[in-house]
Amino acid sequence: xxxxxxxxxxxxxxxxxxxxxxxxxxxxxxxxxxxxxxxxxxxxxxxxxxxxxxxxxxxxxxxxxxxxxxxxxxxxxxxxxxxxxxxxxxxxxxxxxxxxxxxxxxxxxxxxxxxxxxxxxxxxxxxxxxxxxxxxxxxxxxxxxxxxxxxxxxxxxxxxxxxxxxxxxxxxxxxxxxxxxxxxxxxxxxxxxxxxxxxxxxxxxxxxxxxxxxxxxxxxxxxxxxxxxxxxxxxxxxxxxxxxxxxxxxxxxxxxxxxxxxxxxxxxxxxxxxxxxxxxxxxxxxxxxxxxxxxxxxxxxxxxxxxxxxxxxxxxxxxxxxxxxxxxxxxxxxxxxxxxxxxxxxxxxxxxxxxxxxxxxxxxxxxx
Length: 368
Ligand SMILES: CSC[C@@H](O)[C@@H](O)C(=O)COP(=O)(O)O
What we know:
Initiation_fac_2B_a/b/d, seven-stranded mixed β-sheet, Four Helix Bundle (Hemerythrin (Met), subunit A), four-stranded mixed β-sheet, globular, Rossmann fold, Methylthioribose-1-phosphate isomerase, alpha/beta, S-methyl-5-thioribose-1-phosphate isomerase activity, methionine biosynthesis, IF-2B-related, 2 domains
């Protein structure tokens, strides 16, 4: 992706210019490449809610930078400065409930506020910017590592199917589910990708198809309901998706429509891979039924996307007023349907609670 298409940029304050989180507006892609510059907490909160920035790792990065936009009065007491940052963290945490990366990143930022003393409080703004930048840079490295590990699973594949957008747009760059595809493409093995549209907000047809095309990876958009028929015809060698939260037993929450794909993949004997960094695991949740599922606005179902697929504006009425609609944004795929989870640390084959625990134990006590 070009610099213009960078998902998230941070603009430090200078003179009269306030700090800002500068986002590629993902509600406008593919019709327009517009940026939205957020100079205040409410602007950034709204941008996360409206999916201007979306995808689990990207939400965490944006929120981490967002903490630095807290309206802090530097002449206030250390206690009040800390309170202002805590309020900002609590507020940003209300933006979206499912992607645990948001809470993980905000916890890291909270750790710095807690660690500040009355003597070091003057350094806190600088430290918070450094921490958000570190979270951003670490995500870049993790995406590259996931690409390398994931590529070991896709070496024999020609065609894969993906759902939603788990690429560079959803992360610092490169992506989670798309990272092995980019890695192999760079090595000269170019896969064909089927991208599910991903109703109702079309992250697959608008975003995945756009970013793969930019990278020169051949992509074919299909409706969500075509996956079964494509597998039945033997056209899919593997399904590969990202995740918003993975429970301790390996159950995976991802964009609504992922679970039926896993069921179809099992029936057709197609491997089903999940690619996610370790900060997408929520080891405090024993199983996937405990993962909070975001319920989004009915209007996303009731109206087609606005002109030029701009999700800011309502398009035509798509559902009669008399009918009810439901709009859960995520579903949970049981671990038993997952062939492997790829993290930046390696591959967990046929994930179970024990294997997830072993994966994390190995990180905490690296072999000498
Ligand atoms: C690398 S991102 C993995 C997930 O965050 C992605 O698959 C997804 O479901 C995103 O949902 P979205 O509602 O667009 O934020």
